[in-house]
Amino acid sequence: PMIVCGLVGLWCCRKYRMERRFRACYAALVVIGVGSALFHGTMTWWGQALDELPMIYGSACYFYLSAEVELLETRRWWLLPVEILYCAMFTIAYFGFPQFFPAFILVYAVSVLIIIYQGYRIYAAYFRDDRSAGGRRSRTLFCLAGFLYPFGFLCLWVPENLLCPGNPWVAGLHLHALFHLITTTSPVCFVAFLMYHRCKNVLKLDKVQHELIGFMPCVSVSLHICLLYTSPSPRDS
Question: Which of these, 234, 195, 190, lies nearest to 13 by C-alpha position?
């Protein structure tokens, strides 16, 4: 589901001329999905690396999006280089220490919580009291995004890893498959939430609407208006 949702998201970004920051998040979702498929299809160490490292890289993309989404132009010029350095150092540590998995879980969990907090700031400032149709949909998207990822980790991934060894009946519950469905839904909802906010409240575009492509939330804008904000610029990111 991650690969499909990521590709659909990239198609939406292309159709509505969305900024590269949104494309990066959807592309990260595709890469994470490919890495996950390789890991579960091979159950090898290199497959595990291709599964886990893209999760760290993807979290950096989502943090950048949530940190810069309220700014009309990029102001924290240092944020992208710092994130690239962070990803590089994490990769070196990952391959340098064989027992790095607990650190990976800790770093990734903290990253997710920080991203959710960044989203909550926007939710509280712009959408908590917004009674419009778009506001109600945005609240729903944020609540799904903020709730589902921690729920999937605590209530599906952790029980599966604790109970599955020695308990064959747990495998029949397909907790890991449900975990992947939930952890696909959460970031998709999060990107749609921030995309609507940026287009509506920051860029002040007209005809910004929530849409569904199948079961996937997306945002549509007026292409004529959107073109005014997508001319080539070295500051566009």
Answer: 195
Answer yes or no: is pLDDT of 163 > 90.
Answer: no
Return mean pLDDT, the chain.
Answer: 91
Query: d(Cα 127, Cα 207) in Å, to the nearest integer?
Result: 18
Distance CA 101, CA 223 (A): 45
User: pLDDT-derived band of residue 172, with 50, 70 and 90 as boundaries?
Assistant: confident
Residue 220 phi, psi (nearest 5): -115, 150
pTM: predicted TM-score of the whole model, two decimal places: 0.90
Could you tell me the CA-to-CA distances from 55 to 64, 109, 219 in Å, in that order? 14, 11, 24
CA angle 98-104-107, nearest 5°?
145
**Rg of the chain, C-alpha, whole Å:** 18
Conformation bin of residue 43: beta by default, left when phi > 0, alpha when psi is -120 to 50: left
Taking the C-alpha atoms of residue 92 and residue 235, their distance in angstroms, rounded to an integer, is 30
Q: Which residues of 105-138 are buried (b: 16+ CB within 10 A; e: fewer)?
A: eebbeebbeebbebbeebbeebbeebeeebbebb
Q: What is the pLDDT of residues 78-103, one digit of tens each?
A: 999 999 999 999 999 999 998 889 99
Asked if residues 40 and 92 have their Cβ atoms less than 8 Å apart, the reply is: no
Query: SS3 for 220?
Result: strand
Q: Which residue stretches of 43-174 are H helix?
A: 45-68, 79-96, 101-122, 133-152, 158-163, 168-171
**Backbone φ and ψ of 217, nearest 5°:** -70, 140
**Contacts with 57 (C-beta within 8 Å, 6 or more apart), sequence order:** 28, 31, 87
